[in-house]
Design goal:
Chain B: Residues 13-112 form the Histidine kinase/HSP90-like ATPase domain. The complex is a heterotrimer of chains A (278), B (112) and C (136). Chain B has one domain (2-110): 2-Layer Sandwich (Heat Shock Protein 90), CATH 3.30.565. Chain B has 4 helices and 4 strands, in the order ααββααββ. Chain B has helices at 2-7, 12-31, 65-68, 82-89; strands at 36-44, 49-57, 92-98, 102-110. Chain B starts with a helix and ends with a strand. Classes of the chains: A alpha/beta (278), B alpha+beta (112), C alpha/beta (136).
């Protein structure tokens, strides 16, 4: 529930007059919840910034966290989530940093047996709750984008396409091949064929522990796509278990050349190159 | 259409897929539906952006949808890959048709 | 309507498609090529599609038709320069372009046609180079 303008005004005064006390108590509570993993000087700076942020939002007339005067405060909260996420704190630890403000507020509100004070506390703690939820939300968003970035980096790292011989490129696949990775590898392989004008490609799956239907489909589609472009693919390094799975799954490798090892595949390709005089 | 596809940051392969699917369906709209309307929009769900294309015609409609979606089936002398192929190229494929009333096909491609 | 230019280089007709393949353009090209093959008596046709960012089933079908017609007129067709994204899309679409020979670029395409030439010169007429067969 949003605050009334009158409440916002009163809270602005309250935060201003107790600024020092609030910041000190808040810093103390946060330091304890983070078990000294951040220096109290740094936390001191953060909490006093936030305390000022809340105060300015209230004095600007913000009755809810989404209001214009609270823009600055929201930016501060996102920034907090951002640094907490990157420093490796978990979601609870991040949100607790904001929730602790309520405890500090309760102490400065004065006589709690007074009904008006209690109403004020309920109102302001509602506001702080929304701020904490907002922090939690942005924490999750930031973590998600971190994960997405890392996944992408991992894809980049794990898909080398190497030139093996004049007119022959190879992709040594290592590790589990999920559908997304298979797709990236295959697109890159095809692009490398064009860039190096290599009519032969060897897909070596020695380092792949398992092949499911989807991955096999991706490999097959790549072979067909390469043919459409005018290049031949050879699959090498199929391990016995994978051969069993391929047959059990009923996947047709058809007329696609398969070789036991990368060396065999290369030998096969070179003899073909000589034959056709390319 | 290409501009919208680039705008929602579709990968090059996905751009090619959606534009090709659109080309197939636009041809269907023209050949079987006797012409119609095409609408291209950007769409968003909670985490991804995408592109949606709607093809609507007031043609004769499709009598046997399952058959029409079978690879190689055609009534117009094509390869019979328009509908079935386009369906494989996109993430969402929705077809609304009634004999005598016309056909509306909606396709969506999401950013990966 | 725009027309796709057809160039003759030695025993080869080279077609480099640099414009959008609208249906009419594709059909016109099919007609033009057949006439030029007969008029020039060449034995090879190279169609460069490296500038095409879209190949749908109609264009695919036209390419296949061109290849078949050329074969009847005793000219071998090689489609060169297909982009990776186009190839992936065609596979997904279910179009495998049977009967069309392909190469990565014009140079490799000429080499592919050239290998057939040698056999002809050797007088093994009626027989195809085994290396060519493996690439069907």
């Amino acid at each position: 529930m949003p605050l009334s303008p009158d409440e916002a005004r009163r809270f602005a005064v309250l935060l201003e007059s107790h600024a020092e006390q609030l910041t000190a108590r808040w810093t103390e509570l946060v330091t304890r919840s983070l078990r000294n993993r951040l220096s109290s000087a740094e936390l001191q700076r953060q909490t006093s910034d936030l305390q000022r942020g809340f105060q300015q939002a209230f004095s600007g007339g913000a009755t809810d966290l989404g209001d214009g005067p609270a823009d600055e405060l929201r930016a501060q909260l996102s920034e907090l989530s951002n640094s907490r996420a990157r420093q490796g704190f978990n979601a609870t630890e991040t949100a607790v940093s904001i929730y602790a403000f309520k405890d500090a507020l309760l102490e400065v509100l004065g006589d709690q047996s007074d009904a008006a004070t209690l109403r004020d506390y309920v109102a302001i703690s509602g506001f702080v709750d929304r701020a904490a939820l907002f922090t939690f939300d942005s924490y999750v968003r930031i973590r998600e984008s971190l994960i997405a970035d890392q996944t992408e980096q991992l894809l980049e790292l794990s898909t080398p396409v190497v030139k093996l011989w004049e007119g022959v490129v190879a992709v040594p696949l290592v590790g589990t091949l999920d559908s997304a990775r298979a797709q990236v590898v295959m697109e890159r392989l095809l692009q490398t064929l064009v860039d190096t004008s290599s009519p032969y490609a060897i897909i070596d799956i020695t380092g792949v522990p398992a092949v499911d239907t989807q991955v096999a489909q991706h490999i097959l589609k790549t072979v067909v796509a390469a043919r459409l472009m005018g290049a031949d693919c050879i699959i090498s390094g199929i391990r016995p278990q994978i051969a069993q799975t391929i047959v059990a799954l009923g996947i047709e490798f058809g007329d696609i050349a398969t070789k036991a090892s990368l060396a065999d595949a290369l030998r096969h390709v070179i003899s073909r190159t000589k034959q056709s005089g390319r | 259409m290409r501009t919208v596809a680039v705008g929602v940051k579709l990968s090059l392969v996905d751009q090619t897929k959606i534009v090709t699917a659109a080309s197939e369906l636009a041809r269907n709209t023209l050949v079987y539906g006797g012409g119609g309307e095409v609408e291209v929009t950007r769409v968003h769900n909670d985490r991804r952006a995408g592109i949606r294309i709607v093809f609507a015609d007031q043609g004769p409609g499709i009598v046997d949808l399952d058959l029409a979606l079978t690879d190689g089936y055609t009534t117009g002398g094509g390869l019979g890959l328009g509908l079935s192929g386009a369906r494989r190229l996109v993430d969402e494929f929705d077809i609304d048709t009634e004999p005598g009333k016309g056909t509306t096909i909606t396709i969506v491609k999401w950013c990966r | 309507m725009e027309r796709v230019p057809v160039l003759k280089i030695g025993d080869i007709l080279l077609v480099s498609i640099q414009i959008d393949m609208e249906d009419q353009v594709a059909l016109q090209l099919q007609e033009d090529l057949a006439e030029r093959i007969v008029a020039t008596g060449v034995h090879g046709v190279i169609i460069d599609i490296s500038a095409l960012d879209i190949v749908d089933s109609f264009v695919g079908r036209t390419l296949a038709a061109i290849a078949s017609v050329s074969r009847v007129l005793d000219a071998e067709t090689v489609v060169v320069g297909m982009r990776p994204a186009v190839a992936i899309t065609l596979v997904e679409l279910g179009l495998s372009l049977p009967g069309i020979r392909t190469a990565l670029n014009v140079e490799l395409g000429i080499a592919m046609l050239g290998s057939r030439e040698t056999v002809d010169v050797l007088g093994d007429e009626g027989e195809t180079d085994p290396a060519v067969l493996t690439r069907e």
